[in-house]
Amino acid sequence: MTAIDPLDMPVTEAGKGYWSGVGARLIRDPLTLICMSVIALLILSAIFAPWLGLGDPYKGSMIARLKPIGTPGHILGTDEQGRDMLARLIYGGRLTLFIGLTPVVLAFFIGGTLGIVAGYAGGWVNTLIMRTVDVFFAFPSVLLAIAISGALGAGIVNSLVSLTIVFIPPLTRVAEAVTSGVRALDYIDAARASGASALTVIRVHVIGNVLSPIFVYATSLTSVCMILAAGLSFLGIGVRPPEPEWGLMLNTLRSAIYVNPWLSALPGLMIFITSLCLNLLSDGVRSAMNVRD
Amino acid sequence: MSVTEPQTPPLPTPLADSAPDKGGPAQPLLIVRDLQKYFPVRGGILGGKKAVVQAVDGVSFEVRKGETLGIVGESGCGKSTTARLLIGLLEKDSGEIIYDGQDLGGALSLRDLRRGVQMVFQDSYASLNPRLTIEDSIAFGARIQGLSDPVGRARKLMDRVGLAPDRFAQRYPHEVSGGQRQRINIARALAMSPRLVVLDEAVSALDKSVEAQVLNLLADLRREFGLTYIFISHDLNVVRYISDRILVMYLGEVVEIAPVDDIWSSQAHPYTKSLFSAMPSMDPDNRTKEPPLAGDPPNPINPPPGCRFHTRCRFVDSVCKTKVPALRPLTAGGQHMAACHLHDLGSGHKLAGKDVLS
């Protein structure tokens, strides 16, 4: 070793864990932080909706129907039955976010596990899992969700189940692709050569290296899932009226589009903002999770 | 390449917790007999077996305790497949692997074999988990094998391979250079206290000055810990520097095996001969004017019958196309062995025994 050692400089990141490094990189990314705050705000306001002093989202009024945005007492106006839009939008976030996130979380665990197992095991296990998954790819996801929901019957639980089934195949496929890439690397061979069991190799060496692409992909699916869930409600096989839910509200306000177009666009705007922020957030998290930057 | 002057070596001290010697000094550490590995080539709608790649076909050799066996050959000749078979990363189709007198699959379990045999890979980056600190990577194997104090062991080995533990232990692989990563890989292999280390092109990807440092480190470690090496490389000079004996492979078969000085002075197999004459010379008057060997090696899916080298051999005769030459000593009881009809007077080759090679 020569006298000038490029590594003989102050150790900056040494001693810190991987996740604190991810956190440090996230803090330096304003766009991701903004998106994160918007999502946090939406989730918090949905959770604490009853304590925010809003009007009753179910209480209508025959005389105060379709009031425009900015009406005193109804800042965002009222819907076609005279219910306060602000209250309905915030209360609607509860169901929309729940239906938008739960299937992705479930599918993330189920699909991720299936994909990692398929990618690591290879051979007939892989063929079995991946060919089964391929069957689901034969149907467009919207059609599949509608078909399963339709078969199970309308209702929130059934839409959750059908959306979960819709999102398992793409997540399995992504997990399988990343895992079989990692599986071919020498450090997996080195770990196997040290006598570690398949489970230990997966736990220590595979999961950490495949999680971030799967996670990022799952994050990007949440916006799709919200839109699909809204679509199911819009079609009348998801949430039932009078529950406030953005997709359902979009459906019921559709008839008011000629009377008060800005008002009827509000639920769509909420869906748009949420999915945009989720997408930007997933991009930011992906670059923060990349060790080599 | 600077060669460290070998001082009177101190007695080798086996690595802590190294498995005890079973067969005594005369027992070769590793005996490989008729090792065979064919890879199926699948295709078609149903994934049926279409052909087989004869990656390793009937390879036999011995590695004595404390020696370094160099394995050379072109790309695709089965060197790496052999290495992976030896540490159990691939399952052999047939043949025997006998480690210190114990047969793998019989008296010896795969887990025990992995305790005694470790490997250093060529690609120093791909062979380290990017999400683990260097210390964790080195300690992993020792932890798996249930050895005492994995972290202390890792730090001690880091120090031994020339990486200050305080400065490097918490770093990640992408923060260090290629040579340093290869030192980490060596420490990682040694952390399980193996007796045999398979070095699969371990220095090939390094630049020349770093390569020399790592080679010297390997030579020192071997002396210090009484290790045995199988050193796979395509660089003959490197193999000569580190090896005691050299094994030459061609298309999945052993064509020649000999002590390094013997093979350096006279190559018995035409393939070895051309391999050596392909080495660039330092002397400008001694230029290589014509390619010593033309063409690519034949496809291992359908290797030529008889001697596999006959399609490219200058001395090819009719017998070479039909009869497979056996690997046999050039002189009775000698250490220099070659698989070529030229050295078998009874083979029917018209040039047999005529000494055409030298």
Automatic annotation (TrEMBL), chain A:
Question: Does the record's keyword annotation contain DNA-binding?
Answer: no
Q: List where in the cell it is found.
A: Cell membrane
Coarsely, its chief localization is membrane
Membrane topology, from the record? Multi-pass membrane protein
Q: List, alphabetically, the SUPFAM superfamilies matched.
A: MetI-like
Q: What does the entry list under GO cellular component? A: plasma membrane
Name a biological process GO annotation. transmembrane transport
TM annotation in the entry = 31-54, 95-122, 142-168, 214-239, 259-281
| Domain ABC transmembrane type-1 positions | 93-282
Q: Which InterPro entries match?
A: BP-dependent_transpt_permease, MetI-like, MetI-like_sf, OppC_N
Q: Does the keyword Oxidoreductase apply?
A: no
Q: Which UniProt keywords apply?
A: Cell membrane, Membrane, Transmembrane, Transmembrane helix, Transport
Pfam family membership, one: OppC_N
Which family does the entry's similarity section mention?
Belongs to the binding-protein-dependent transport system permease family.
Q: What PANTHER family does the annotation carry?
A: OLIGOPEPTIDE TRANSPORT SYSTEM PERMEASE PROTEIN APPC (PTHR43386), PEPTIDE ABC TRANSPORTER PERMEASE PROTEIN (PTHR43386:SF25)
* Protein name stated in the entry: ABC transporter permease subunit
Species source reads: Pseudooceanicola spongiae
Automatic annotation (TrEMBL), chain B:
GO MF annotation list: ATP binding; ATP hydrolysis activity
Give the record's keywords alphabetically.
ATP-binding, Cell inner membrane, Cell membrane, Hydrolase, Membrane, Nucleotide-binding, Repeat, Translocase, Transport
- What are its E.C. numbers? 7.4.2.10
The record's annotation in SUPFAM superfamilies points to:
P-loop containing nucleoside triphosphate hydrolases
Which domain of life does this protein belong to? Bacteria
Which reaction is catalysed here? Answer: glutathione(out) + ATP + H2O = glutathione(in) + ADP + phosphate + H(+)
EC category: translocase
Parts of the chain that traverse the membrane: none
- Looking at the record, the residues that make up the ABC transporter domain are 30-276
List localization entries: Cell inner membrane
What's its membrane topology? Peripheral membrane protein
Q: Which GO terms describe its cellular component?
A: plasma membrane
Check the record and name the InterPro entries matching this protein: AAA+_ATPase, ABC_transp_ATP-bind, ABC_transporter-like_ATP-bd, ABC_transporter-like_CS, Oligopep_ABC_C, P-loop_NTPase
Q: Which SMART domains match?
A: AAA
Keyword check for Chloroplast: no
The UniProt entry's GO biological process terms, in alphabetical order, are: peptide transport; transmembrane transport
Region (Disordered) residue ranges read 1-23, 275-302
PANTHER family linked? GLUTATHIONE IMPORT ATP-BINDING PROTEIN GSIA (PTHR43776:SF15), TRANSPORT ATP-BINDING PROTEIN (PTHR43776)
What is this protein's function per UniProt? Part of the ABC transporter complex GsiABCD involved in glutathione import. Responsible for energy coupling to the transport system.
> What family classification does the UniProt entry report for this protein?
Belongs to the ABC transporter superfamily. Glutathione importer (TC 3.A.1.5.11) family.
Q: Subunit notes for this chain?
A: The complex is composed of two ATP-binding proteins (GsiA), two transmembrane proteins (GsiC and GsiD) and a solute-binding protein (GsiB).
Task: Report the protein name in the record.
Answer: Glutathione import ATP-binding protein GsiA
Q: Which organism is it from?
A: Pseudooceanicola spongiae
